Amino acid sequence: MPAKSRFTRLDAFTKTVEDARIRTTSGGIVTIASLLIVMYLVWGEWSDYRRIAVHPELIVDKGRGEKMEIHLNISFPQIPCELLTLDVMDVSGEQQTGVKHGIQKVQLAAPNLGGMPIDVRSLDL
Q1: Which of 50, 59, 105, 110 allows an S-S link to 81, with CB 3.0 to 4.6 Å?
Q2: Does position 13 have pLDDT exceeding 70, yes or no?
Q3: pLDDT score for 1
Q4: Which range has highest mean pLDDT (3-7, 50-54, 60-64, 70-74)?
Q5: What is the pLDDT of residue 125?
Q6: Dihedrals φ, ψ of 121, to 5°?
Q7: 47-85 burial, b for 16+ CB within 10 Å, e for fewer?
Q8: Facing residues of 107 across strands?
């Protein structure tokens, strides 16, 4: 089968007018080129869809002067409450020493007596 007739059968863009409905070699070449381009684009989109993209991002917190909210529940059964203080340092190096507001110190009974609370002191300012 000659090469011309192979491309002629592949012409998907035939004309609608009866006189112009002639399958041509150039139409077959355009059809094959179009199919190859479409397949290349579909393959490219599929491979891009399947690709894992990691976008590392660092956002600077511009809110300076704000205090951190910390929730703790720590028991020190052998240390008197008067000796306990709270010092805080965040990632940027800002320090808060001797934090006193919003803290409750609960004095506990000895472990052999059940360790139940004896006295609760709130250090709210």
Answers
A1: 105
A2: no
A3: 52
A4: 50-54
A5: 45
A6: -120, 125
A7: eeeeeeeeeeeeeeeeeeeeeeeeeeeeeeeeeeeeeee
A8: 119
Three-point CA angle 19, 22, 24, nearest 5°: 150
Query: CA angle at residue 84 from 78 to 88, to 5 degrees?
Result: 135
- Considering 23-27, 35-39, 76-80, 81-85, the range whose residues carry the highest mean pLDDT is 35-39
3-state SS track over the chain: CCHHHHHHHCCCCCCCCHHHCCCCHHHHHHHHHHHHHHHHHHHHHHHHHHCCCCCCCCCCCCCCCCCCCCCCCCCCCCCCHHHCCCCEECCCCCEECCCCCCCEEEEECCHHHCCCEEEEEECCC
Burial class (CB in 10 A: 0-12, 13-18, 19+), 121: exposed
Sign of CA dihedral 46, 49, 52, 54: positive
Task: Tell me the mean pLDDT in the region 52-67.
Answer: 74
